[in-house]
Design a protein that fits this description.
It is built from no helices and five strands. The chain is globular. By secondary structure, the chain is an all-beta fold. A hairpin with a 5-residue loop joins strand 2 and strand 3. It has a three-stranded antiparallel β-sheet with strand order 3-2-5, with no helix packed on it.
Length: 53
């Protein structure tokens, strides 16, 4: 991911029960969201990659 600095919102509207995972530069898990989730605020600055299921 590039050009994602600061805060913003995310919504996990995948098939119920799937999980989105957000990772830092060292591959560490920053957060996980099981679907469905409503709009939640996230700090995107430390996120270097994500896996959507």
């Amino acid at each position: 991911m590039s050009y994602r600095d600061g805060g913003g919102y995310c919504i996990n509207n995948q098939t119920s029960g799937t999980v989105s995972s957000f990772y830092g530069s060292g591959g560490n898990t920053l957060r996980t969201d099981a679907s469905p989730t409503s709009q939640t605020y996230a700090d995107w600055t430390p996120v270097h990659s994500l896996r959507n299921c």
